[in-house]
Amino acid sequence: MTTAHDRQRQAALLRKPSAGPARIDPHTIAVQLRRMSAEINRLVHRFAGDDGLHSTDVQALTAILDADEPMTPGRLRRHLGLTSGAVSACVERLERAGHIRRVRHSSDRRVARLHCAADARSYLRPLAEATPAARTRFSEPELAVALRFLAAMNEELSLKKSSGG
What we know:
Distance between the termini: 24 Å
Oligomer: single chain
Helix content: 55-70%
Order of helices and strands: HHHHHEEHH
Strand content: 5-15%
Number of strands: 2
Radius of gyration: 19 Å
C-alpha cells in the first residue's frame, strides 16, 4: 500500500526539472504506470457503461483504432485471444452502437474489414485533452525518451503475454 509519504516523494520526483542523471526508483515508475492504467480503465468502464458495451468491446474498439492496417475479425480474434463467436458478438455490439462499420473486401466478399465510425474516438477524448497539457511540462528530447520508455514497456509486456508468463 502506498503511504502519503510515498505519494509526496513520488510527486516531488516528478516535479523536479531534469538536472542531470538521477536514480529513479523502479517502484516509483511502476506506481505511476499503474495509476495511469487505473485512470484509463476508469475512462474505459465509464464509456462502456454509458454505451451498454463490455470492457472487451472497448479493447476491440481500441485495437481497431490503433491498427496499422484495416482490422479483420480474424486479426481481432487473435489480438484479443477470443473465440470466433465472442468476436462476432463483440463486432455486432460495436456495430449496433454505431462505433464501427464492416466493409466487405471488393474482390473477396467473404473478407470484412472493420473501420471505426467518426465518433468512435470520443471515449479517448479525456486522454487526448490531457496529453497536450502534460506535454507542455517536458522538452522534446524528454518526450522522446518517455515515448521510447513506453514503447519498450509495451514491448516487454507483449512478450510476457505471448510467452504466457
